[in-house]
Amino acid sequence: xxxxxxxxxxxxxxxxxxxxxxxxxxxxxxxxxxxxxxxxxxxxxxxxxxxxxxxxxxxxxxxxxxxxxxxxxxxxxxxxxxxxxxxxxxxxxxxxxxxxxxxxxxxxxxxxxxxxxxxxxxxxxxxxxxxxxxxxxxxxxxx
Length: 143
Description:
By secondary structure, the protein is an alpha/beta fold. The chain has a single domain (30-142), classed as Glutaredoxin. It is 56% helix and 19% strand. The protein is built from 7 helices and 5 strands; from the N terminus they run H-H-E-H-E-H-H-E-H-E-E-H. A 5-stranded mixed beta sheet has the order 1-3-2-4-5. A hairpin with a 5-residue loop joins strand 4 and strand 5. The longest helix is centred in the first third of the chain and has 18 residues, at 2-19.
């Protein structure tokens, strides 16, 4: 009887994890693009562009991936309003040096035509990241 209850508890925990804020979002995820494809796509779709530099060895990159980029609200807002680009700092050295990336993660925001709107180095928690994204969209509405 105790094994049956333990199995039920495990099943409930698994179901809760899948339906929780990060569980479901992690299965869908942000639609990432390469640098070249993303910049072209931003121009052709009239969406703003978000560019993230990361590396496998970067601890805060992993934290941002796990907490910020798996947050359902962040995923939905990014996919609706931005073209998201992910660049590996080590594998794409030319792009990293073009932006003079010195620390990771490094986050850039562009207009639809590729004009730099802002830059924010370091880890950004989900709520703060959403505020930043919304400020770029709100800035457009004020014009």
